[in-house]
Amino acid sequence: MVQHAHTSGTYDTAARAVWLIFALNLALCVAKLLAGWGGHSFALVADGINNLGDVGISVALLAGIWLARRPPDDNHAYGHGKLEQETSRVVGLAVLFTGALVVVEGIGRLDDQHGAPEPIVLEVAGVAILVKGFMYFYQRRVAARLGSGALAADALNHQLDIAATACVLAGSGALWLGGSAWAPADDAAAIAVGVLMCCTAGHVVYEASSELLDRMPPEDLLGQIRAIAQFHPGVLGVEELVGRKAGMHYLIDLHLEVAGEMQVRAAHALGHQVKARIMAQLPQIQDIVIHLEPADDALQEAIRNGSRN
User: What pLDDT, on a 0 to 100 scale, did the predictor assign at position 180?
Assistant: First the structure.
């Protein structure tokens, strides 16, 4: 059964970050819906709905983190980490559907005539851009430190939210400055918000599905594993290295070449040494299964002659 390597602290850090993002998204959602409704801007209302989807993403992430951190059991020997990706995918599909509805509603309102929005619409949109900028840089930093695909996807969502709110600011500003002749600008901004919601959701669904299909770990991580393993005393080479992601961590299969005459007890000890060394240096790895293979005669002869590759 797979052993978890310091995963509890990782999930605690992720949960704290998501709680902060949840609170900010909720505040933005309420502010935009109230200002958009009272200030006569469908674009800002649509952007508030967009933030409501962000609130849903935060709730789903918290649920996913809580479920994914559960230890392995008899029926789930590799743990429950993939629930993080599955949660992201389900929420992404929900946001995709909501964005499509916003686009349809915005198109239906293009011919409607309405007055300029209240100044509060522009003020709320401007403040929201600043808040979302902070959220993007904060969550991107946490996601990079933890190696969380779900948090990274949510950080990208903040970046596109900035673009969506900028569309609201541009559309509402044009209507406010140009008068009723520019009425379609507000609805066009709402359509742009819906399109960006769909783009964001599509990316989230694609990334989560790719990880659920056991996409290989990043090449730089594989390179670090290979370098640590092949230069460990007693290891003659790395025959094969594959892996997959489960939640915020990686599961690795590593095939090492050793001297054919090495005794089983010594080879077993060597495998544990390599595993411990890799996991100590790369905390994003949850577990490694090491296979020991006898090196062929040509490789062993080359090493003895000092021409190891």
Answer: 67
